[in-house]
Automatic annotation (TrEMBL), chain A:
Family that this chain belongs to: Belongs to the GerABKC lipoprotein family.
GO cellular component terms listed in the entry, alphabetical order: membrane
Localization in the cell: Membrane
Domain Spore germination protein N-terminal, chain residue ranges per copy: 28-200
Protein name: Spore germination protein KC
PANTHER family, per database record: SPORE GERMINATION PROTEIN B3
GO-annotated biological processes: spore germination
Keyword Lipoprotein (UniProt): yes
Gene3D superfamilies recorded: Nutrient germinant receptor protein C, domain 1, Nutrient germinant receptor protein C, domain 3
Topology versus the membrane: Lipid-anchor
The Spore germination GerAC-like C-terminal domain, residue ranges: 218-381
Automatic annotation (TrEMBL), chain B:
Region (Disordered): 1-21
Listed name of the protein: Spore germination protein KA
Pfam families, A to Z: GerA
Cellular compartment(s): Cell membrane; Membrane
C-alpha cells in the first residue's frame, strides 16, 4: 500500500514536472549565445520620411581552451538599417543577424539633430518605452551631427561609446536625463524639455594619431518632442542649477582680472518661488550652495571670515551670470520653459494657470525672474594665500 | 500497473522454538539442559559447562563465548563453588551467597534465560531448583571513546557516543547527574532484540511527548534495529518529506543540551547515533560550537550558515534563470563577460548546470565512501575534471564552475549532514523549474518548499518554529545565538513546563 502510494506520488510528481517542461516551458527561453546584445543605438533621419537605425552589437569572443583574448577591449560591430520607424528598422536589421537582437542592455540612445529638429521624436521614443526589453532608465542624447558618427568612435577607457556617455551622465557632466525624465518633462505643464548634446572632439596626440572622443557640449532644448535650439556649456550649467540638478561640481569666480578662485560644491539646493501680484507674474530662484575652496589663484587671504564673504560674493556673481545667460537664451529667445516654472505656477496658482496654459509661450517671456544666490564656503583649505 | 504493486499478503514467519520459551524452568537439570540445547541448536558459540558444587550438587553454567568475562567466571564463580570448603549440599540462595559477584539476578523462565545469555550474563542452573541465577558478567570488546568524526568542533568536549548502550548512558549520566534524568527501556526487533532507551528529564520534558514517543516506538515491529535510522523512519511524522524530522547526533553534550530543553533522546544499542525529538528546522543549524564560543562570533556564523543555505539551494537555479531568461537583470559588464565565456558552450544553461551539479554530487559521494588515501586522489581528479578540463573541452563555462564550487561549499556549511543532503537534493527540481520558467519557476519552487516546511511537524512541533508560528522570544536562539545571560527560558514548545533555566539579570556589570 505504502509502496504504491510512494510510487504514485513520485510518478505524479514527475508527470507534473514534465508537463511544466513540455506544455509551457521554454517558450521565452533565450540562451545567452542566441542573443546579439545591443550596447548602443543611434537614430538618424533619412530621406522619404524614413529613419536609419544604427546599432552597436557586442561580439562575444570565445575564451575556451584557456586562451585569453589578446586585448581586453570588447569587440563591437556597427550595423545600420533603414525603416519607417524604429521597430521596422530593427526588424530590417534583424535580417543581417543570426542571433536575436537583444535590447535589454542598450542603455544609450542617440538621436541625430536633424531628426530631433524635425519633431515628433515621441513617435520613435515610444518603441523604447513600449517594447519590453529596453529600459526606462536608459539615457537619451542628441548628437550635434549625425548620430551614427558618435557610435563609430572607439573610446580609450570604456569598452564602447554608450558606456562612456552613460558614465559621464552619471557623473553629472551635462544633463543626466533618462527616458523616464524626458517623458516626464515632455508631458509636464510647460512642455519644455532638454537632452544633453554630444559633440565630437578632435585632439592631436604626440604620435600624430588623431584622438577622437565624444564630449557632452551643451544642451538641446525641446518644446514637447521637437528640438528647437541648443545652448552651450555655460548656459547649460545655469539651466541645470535652476532645475535643481548638478553639473560638474567646480565653479570658478573671478575676483579681479587675471585672478581666479575655485569652489568645489558639496551641496546645492534650488527653490522656485512663483508669485502673481496685480496680474504680474514673477519667479524668484533661491539657490544655496556650499562647498570648499580647491584653488586660490588670487591674492585674497581666504582664512579670514571677512574675505570668505568676498569670495562667496564673487562666486555668487558667477552663478548668477550663468543663470541669466540661460534664462535669456531659453526663456526669452526660444520661449521654452525647461526650468520648471510652469509646474511651480501650476502648483501654487492652479486657477490662474488654467487661464494661461494654452498660451504659455506668450506669457513666459514676460515673467520677471529674480535670482538670489547664496554661496557658503565651508572649508577654505589649510593655507592662507598663494605662494608669492 | 498499480495493481501489480498492490499489497500481497505477508506471511509471518514464527520463530522456531518459540513454544518452549515462556515455560518456567524445570527442576530437573537434564531437562533444562535439553530444552536450552534445543533452543540454541546449531549455535556453536553457546557453552554448556556442567560442574559439581562442592563435589556434590550437579550444576550447569550456560553462556555465550565472547560475551562473558571467562576469567571472572573462573575466579569468582567456579573457584569458590568448586572448593571443598562447602561441605553440605546447598540450595540456589546459598550458592549465590558464595559467589563473589555484586550483580546476580534470579531467572525463572527459559525466556529470561535466553535474554540473559544473549546479553552475556551466564546462567547458573542447579539440580532440584526451579530457578536459576543470571550472573552479571557481561563483557565484550568495545570501541574506546573517541572524538566523533561527523561532528568535529573547534572548542568543546572531544568525546562521542560509542556502539555500547551502557557506555552511552553513562556518558549522559556524567553530564546530567540529577536523578531527574529518567530512562525508559524497550526492546525492539524480533531477531536482534535491540535495547532502546528513551531518555528524558522529569519535570522538563512534557509527559505527553514522552507518551507519544513511547507509543510510536511500541508500534514498531521489525526483525532488527541495526542503526537508529531504522526506527527514525518508522516514527517520523511525514515520511515523504526530504527534510529530517529527528536530529541525530554522536555527541553526548548535544544530547544533554537537548534533554535540558525538554526534548527526548532515543538511544539505540549498537550505534553511536542517538535520535533527538522533537526538532525544528533551526535545530539543524545549531552547531555545538555555537554555545561554547562567544555569542557575537556564534551569531555571525549562524547567520552566515543560513545565508549560505539559501545559496546552496538557489544559486544554480538563479544562474540558470538569469542566463537563459532574464539577461536584462545582470549588470551589463558582467553580461558581456558571461556572453564571452558561454560562447563556445554547446548546451543550454540548464543542461550545463545539471551536468556540473550531478558530477559534483558524484564526486562527493565517491570521495565519501573511499578509504582516505584514495579519497584524496578522487578529489584531485575531481578538481581537475570540474575545474579545468570541462572548461577547456568547452563543455561548461568557467562561470558555471564558480557557481558549482560556491554551491558545494555552501551546502557543507550546514552543520548537520542529514539536513545538508536534503537541501542539496531539492535544488535539482528547483533548477529544472528555473530552467523552464525562469525566475517564476524559482519562486514557485521556493513557495512550494516554504509551504511544505510550514506543514511539517516533528512530534507535533511545527518544523519552522519559531518563524512559523512566530514566537518572538524564541528568536534568541534561531538566527542568532543570544548571550548566555539572555537565554533564561527554555524553548516554549518543548520546555514550557519548567520555563526558567537560570536566574535572570546575570549580565556581568559593575555593582551599582
Amino acid at each position: 500500500m505504502i509502496l504504491c502510494r510512494i510510487i504514485k506520488a513520485i510518478l505524479s510528481f514527475f508527470l507534473v514536472l514534465s508537463q511544466c517542461v513540455l506544455l509551457t516551458g521554454c517558450w521565452d527561453n533565450k540562451e545567452l549565445n542566441q542573443l546579439a546584445i545591443i550596447v548602443g543605438a543611434a537614430i538618424d533621419k533619412e530621406k522619404n520620411n524614413k529613419i536609419k537605425l544604427t546599432v552597436q552589437v557586442f561580439l562575444p569572443q570565445s575564451q575556451s581552451g584557456g586562451q585569453q583574448s589578446s586585448s581586453s577591449k570588447a569587440q563591437v560591430e556597427i550595423k545600420s538599417a533603414v525603416g519607417t520607424n524604429l521597430a521596422d528598422a530593427a526588424s530590417n536589421l534583424q535580417r543581417e543577424y543570426s542571433r536575436r537582437l537583444f535590447w535589454g542592455h542598450c542603455k544609450t540612445y542617440i538621436f541625430g539633430r536633424s531628426l530631433s529638429e524635425k519633431g515628433n521624436l515621441g513617435r520613435q521614443i515610444d518603441f523604447i518605452d513600449r517594447h519590453p526589453e529596453p529600459r526606462e532608465e536608459s539615457r537619451l542624447y542628441v548628437s550635434d551631427g549625425k548620430a551614427s558618427d558618435i557610435l563609430q568612435l572607439s573610446p580609450s577607457l570604456e569598452k564602447y561609446v554608450g558606456d562612456v556617455l552613460r558614465k559621464m551622465s552619471e557623473m553629472h557632466v551635462g544633463a543626466n536625463i533618462t527616458l523616464k525624465d524626458f517623458e516626464l518633462m515632455v508631458t509636464s505643464e510647460g512642455g519644455g524639455a532638454l537632452l544633453p548634446l554630444i559633440k565630437i572632439k578632435h585632439q592631436n596626440n604626440d604620435d600624430r594619431k588623431m584622438n577622437v572622443s565624444p564630449i557632452i557640449g551643451g544642451t538641446a532644448i525641446f518644446m514637447r518632442d521637437k528640438m528647437i535650439g541648443r545652448i552651450n556649456e555655460v548656459e547649460s550649467k545655469g539651466l541645470l542649477w535652476v532645475r535643481n540638478q548638478n553639473e560638474l561640481p567646480e565653479i570658478t569666480g573671478y575676483p579681479k582680472k587675471g585672478q581666479t578662485i575655485s569652489l568645489y560644491l558639496k551641496r546645492t539646493k534650488t527653490n522656485l518661488i512663483p508669485k502673481i501680484e496685480k496680474g504680474k507674474w514673477s519667479v524668484t530662484i533661491y539657490i544655496s550652495k556650499e562647498g570648499m575652496i580647491v584653488q586660490n589663484g588670487s591674492k585674497i587671504n581666504i582664512m579670514s571670515k571677512k574675505n570668505t564673504k568676498r569670495v562667496e560674493n564673487y562666486i555668487e556673481k558667477d552663478v548668477s551670470i550663468s543663470i541669466e545667460k540661460a534664462l535669456k537664451q531659453v526663456k526669452d529667445g526660444m520661449k521654452v520653459d525647461p526650468f520648471g516654472f510652469a509646474t511651480a505656477f501650476h502648483r501654487k496658482y492652479p486657477k490662474e494657470w488654467e487661464k494661461v496654459k494654452d498660451h504659455w509661450e506668450v506669457v513666459l517671456p514676460d515673467i520677471y525672474v529674480e535670482t538670489k544666490v547664496k554661496v557658503h564656503v565651508l572649508e577654505p583649505g589649510l593655507s592662507t594665500t598663494t605662494l608669492e | 500497473m498499480f495493481r501489480i504493486l498492490k499489497k500481497r499478503p505477508q506471511k509471518q514467519h514464527p520463530i522456531e522454538g518459540m513454544s518452549n520459551r515462556n515455560l518456567p524452568l524445570s527442576s530437573e537439570l537434564d531437562k533444562n539442559l535439553q530444552i536450552l540445547k534445543s533452543i540454541y541448536k546449531g549455535c556453536i558459540d553457546v557453552i554448556y559447562h556442567p560442574f559439581l558444587i562442592a563435589g556434590k550438587t550437579k550444576a550447569l553454567l550456560v553462556y555465550i563465548d565472547g560475551l562473558s568475562d571467562t576469567e571472572q567466571i573462573d575466579s569468582s564463580v567456579l573457584a569458590p563453588l568448586m572448593s571443598k570448603t562447602i561441605d553440605k549440599s546447598i540450595n540456589l540462595q546459598e550458592t549465590c551467597e558464595n559467589i563473589q559477584l555484586s550483580n546476580i539476578r534470579v531467572v525463572k523462565t527459559y525466556d529470561d534465560c535466553i535474554k540473559n545469555i544473549s546479553n552475556g550474563n551466564p546462567i547458573l542452573l542447579m539440580e532440584h531448583e526451579e530457578q536459576g541465577a543470571a550472573l552479571g558478567l557481561a563483557k565484550w570488546d568495545k570501541r574506546s571513546i573517541i572524538e566523533p568524526e561527523s561532528e568535529s568542533v573547534i572548542r568543546g568536549p572531544r568525546e562521542g557516543f560509542v556502539e555500547t548502550l551502557g557506555v552511552n548512558i553513562s556518558m549522559l549520566r556524567r553530564k546530567i547527574r540529577s536523578p531527574n534524568l529518567k530512562m525508559i527501556k524497550m526492546n525492539i526487533g524480533s531477531y536482534s532484540d535491540t535495547s532502546i532507551i528513551i531518555a528524558y528529564i522529569e519535570g522538563i520534558a512534557n509527559q505527553s511527548l514522552i507518551d507519544e514517543v513511547q507509543n510510536r516506538l511500541q508500534k514498531v515491529e521489525v526483525d532488527s534495529v541495526l542503526e537508529s535510522g531504522y526506527i527514525e523512519e518508522l516514527i517520523e511524522d511525514n515520511v515523504f518529506s526530504p527534510f529530517p524530522q529527528l536530529l541525530d547526533t554522536e555527541r553526548p553534550d548535544v544530547a544533554s543540551a537537548n534533554l535540558l530543553e525538554g526534548r527526548v533522546v532515543i538511544l539505540v544499542d549498537g550505534t553511536p547515533f542517538v535520535l533527538i525529538a522533537p526538532v525544528s528546522f533551526f535545530s539543524f543549524f545549531q552547531a555545538p560550537d555555537d554555545y561554547y564560543q562567544r555569542y557575537l562570533i556564534s551569531s555571525v556564523i549562524r547567520i552566515m550558515r543560513l545565508f549560505f543555505m539559501l545559496i546552496s539551494v538557489f544559486l544554480p537555479s538563479l544562474y540558470v534563470a538569469v542566463s537563459s531568461f532574464h539577461q536584462e537583470m545582470v549588470p551589463t559588464t558582467l553580461l558581456l563577460s558571461m556572453a564571452s565565456l558561454r560562447e563556445s558552450v554547446p548546451f543550454t544553461a540548464l543542461i550545463e548546470a545539471l551536468i556540473m551539479e550531478i558530477v559534483f554530487e558524484a564526486l562527493r559521494e565517491a570521495g565519501l565512501r573511499l578509504p582516505k588515501q584514495i579519497g584524496a586522489a578522487v578529489s584531485i581528479v575531481g578538481a581537475l575534471v570540474i575545474g579545468q578540463a570541462a572548461v577547456q573541452a568547452g563543455l561548461v563555462s568557467p562561470l558555471m564552475v564558480i557557481v558549482v564550487a560556491i554551491t558545494g561549499i555552501a551546502s557543507f556549511m550546514v552543520p548537520r549532514y542529514s539536513e545538508g543532503i536534503a537541501l542539496r537534493l531539492i535544488r535539482f527540481p528547483i533548477m529544472m523549474l528555473a530552467g523552464t520558467m525562469g525566475l517564476h519557476g524559482l519562486v514557485f519552487g521556493f513557495i512550494a518548499i516554504v509551504i511544505h516546511l510550514c506543514k511539517l511537524r516533528s512530534f507535533g512541533v511545527p518544523y519552522l518554529s519559531p518563524i512559523a508560528p512566530t514566537i518572538g522570544r524564541e528568536m534568541k536562539d534561531a538566527f542568532i545565538r543570544s548571550p548566555w545571560w539572555m537565554l533564561n527560558t527554555r524553548p516554549h514548545l518543548t520546555g514550557r513546563i519548567n520555563k526558567y533555566r537560570q536566574a535572570p539579570n546575570q549580565q556581568p556589570k559593575p555593582k551599582k
